């Protein structure tokens, strides 16, 4: 089973940032309002996430680290309209197979917390532990025992940059939650609860928010809202392009094409613009079950999505130009 998990880990956990994403998404699915992240050496030495979510019951701790154990999907209908960020039940099992993972959790109402440790898939018995509430997961020495994999990791600062970008994406999609991030013991990011505008200002800068166009367009079950920046002169702002579909960060050809067309039509501009936009549609209209790490989606009616995005953006951008 460990080998199967290690192979799966190669897919799910390419680098520390992917492991971090799995942990943060679990915290969000668990209803956490506050997410604290501590990284050491770009996440290669330590990735630690502490949340204040519902927690895990003692008897479910081992199960949580087991492959294909998910508490989120009960039947095929659920899979058709996934409402949680995770649903495959392979995130924790994969990470635990290529690291030393310590899981401490206090289930809502429990007298105290419980702790289990998985050393490259070998699970310890649960022991009583101290934790006020929620869940704390430590991932030590990712890929330490798999030098072939470890070789693909870049410098600590590059791995940290990937982790920080992952935090930005999840933070923008969850402005009502608090995020803190530290690296090698130094505070790196502190985001207080607020609305999308406040969160955009914190992540993308005040300048972006002040110059951006606010969008909120609807057509039937479709809604596009958020902030679209004006094209930046000079340096590319590709990094500051955030698009979310039903709360998930995506990078998709249909979406990018529509955005490029709108900017070109209205502003006659080919340069990259920063944006933070949210598309919402009925869960059945989009397949998020494409690949665990790919930030791709498949729309059931991509033509309709394309036309809606183009029309909405064109209208919003034109209104400010007039
Ligand atoms: P998935 O998210 O696809 O269900 P994971 O392997 O990521 O699979 O997690 C397995 C299970 O462990 C989850 O379904 C959930 O029940 C539990 N779990 C993991 N992390 C947390 C957390 N931070 N708080 C509460 N429960 C958690
Ligand atoms: Mg998960």
Walk me through this protein's architecture:
This is DNA mismatch repair protein MutL. Residues 200-318 form the DNA mismatch repair protein S5 domain. Belongs to the DNA mismatch repair MutL/HexB family. Keywords: DNA damage, DNA repair. The protein is 35% helix and 27% strand. It is of the alpha+beta class. It is globular. The model has no long low-confidence stretch (mean pLDDT 88). It binds adenosine-5'-diphosphate and magnesium ion. Adenosine-5'-diphosphate is lined by residues 22, 26-27, 30, 51, 53-56, 64, 69-72, 86-93, 135.
Radius of gyration based on Cα positions: 21 Å
Unreliable stretches, pLDDT < 50, 5 or more residues? Answer: none
Helix and strand content put the structural class at alpha+beta
Number of helical runs?
A: 11
Question: What's the oligomerization state?
Answer: single chain
What do the pLDDT scores average to? 88
Distance between the termini: 62 Å
Bound molecules: adenosine-5'-diphosphate, magnesium ion
Shape: globular
Beta percentage is: 25-35%
Reading the helices and strands in chain order gives HHEEHHHEEEEEHHEEHHEEEEHEEEH
Q: How many strands, which pairing sense, and closed or not: the largest β-sheet?
A: 9 strands, mixed
Helical residue percent?
A: 25-40%
Please provide the count of β strands.
Answer: 16
